[in-house]
Amino acid sequence: MAAGLRLPWSCGMGGCGACTVRRVSGDVVMQEPNCLSAAERGAGDTLTCVGYAAGPLTLELRP
After folding, report:
1. Which pTM was predicted?
2. Contact, 57 vs 30, CB < 8 A?
3. What pLDDT does 47 receive?
């Protein structure tokens, strides 16, 4: 979002999950606490409102 990309979001603080996208490749650093479970993180889910790319990153937006 800081780079000007149009990404989904709602609460802006990692509490609702409306901004959840799938990380395809790369690393994301997310502010804690947030609403994702360990299983969701392990599956590649990330939150665009509190996540920051830690290098090159590919995300998959959900329909």
Report:
1. 0.83
2. no
3. 95
